[in-house]
Amino acid sequence: MTGGSWTVLGAGSALPRSGYGPSAHLLRHASLDGPLLFDCGPGTIRALDAQGVTLAELRRIVITHFHVDHCLDLAALAFARRNPAARAGPLEIFAPERLREVLAGLESAFGRGAVFQDTTLRPLEPDAGAKGLQLDATRLRWTPNGHTPDAISVALDLPDGVRVAYTGDTGPCPALEDLAREVDLLVSECSFPDESPVGGHLTPTSAAELATRCGARRLLLTHFYPMLDPRAALRAAAGAFSGPIELARDGSRHRL
Asked: N vs C: which end of the chain shows fewer Cβ within 10 Å?
């Protein structure tokens, strides 16, 4: 696949809204050993199947933080992988340092069925994000963003020179601006209307201002709460960012 693609599995929040499920995104690129999953909110396992991704193909997951709308389907994934019909192979999970604690909590709540098998846990230490780590020929970098004490935003440097950043959940954050400097695609949360901002989140205008300050070439808005009309978000964002703006929806695919 030339250039690869970013597919939105969940473009919304924990609140019910048709076409906008909880957060999950999928990166496909020829340089990676299989699709790379970002976040794993409720409904992700079903959404993977809709995109033709089997559990045998899923080798890596990146979790940005541990709110349930970004990680709860980890329990479902662990359970599904234990079924012989899944033919699941080795898995790596990259996440903030509290990862082991969270997975232990899933086991406590749901029993041994929620324990990952044949899985390597890769805690992402806050101070190591600038250097990052190598995933095949792709570089993964990250930075704390203040949404929760351990929440992160991530960026990927692909071997063909393309760069993409995913904010996860965040408010305005200077470190995120540095992380996403001159990315080709900025996948940014856009939770609430400008007139009703909520701390720790971005609005259409603040997401667009982030894209402008970091010099992003394209902006993809996602994580819409039901009180925000995506079309209204597009109009508001266009007032603060002059580049192309795209709207996420469950199942939408965006070129890299």
From this structure: N
**How far apart, in whole angstroms, are the C-alpha atoms of residue 49 and residue 44?**
9
* φ, ψ at 240 (rounded to 5°): -125, -5
pLDDT in tens, 80-128: 999 999 999 999 999 999 999 999 999 999 999 999 999 999 999 999 9
Estimate to the nearest angstrom the gap between the alpha carbon of 218 and the chain centroid.
Answer: 17
Q: Token pair of 239, please? A: 């007032």
| Beta carbons within 8 Å of 6's beta carbon, 6+ residues apart | 25, 26, 27, 164, 185, 187, 220, 253, 254, 255, 256
Residue 235 tokens, joined: 């109009």
Provide the whole-model pTM: 0.97
What's the CATH number where 40 sits?
A: 3.60.15.10
pLDDT at residue 1, rounded to an integer: 40
Residues 6+ apart with CB under 8 A from 229: none
In 15-136, where do the E strands start and end?
A: 24-28, 36-38, 60-62, 91-96, 119-124, 133-135
Q: Please, which pLDDT band fits residue 201 given cuts at 50, 70 and 90?
A: very high
Q: Where do we find the tokens 């899985």?
A: 119
- Residue-range definition of the domain harbouring residue 129: 5-255
Q: Which pLDDT tens digit goes with each residue over 38-57?
A: 999 999 999 999 999 999 99
- Other C-beta atoms closer than 10 Å to the C-beta of 161 total 7
Sheet holding 24-28, edge to edge: 119-124, 91-96, 60-62, 36-38, 24-28, 5-10, 253-255
- pLDDT tens for 160-192 read 999 999 999 999 999 999 999 999 999 999 999
Q: Which two tokens stand for residue 236?
A: 């508001």
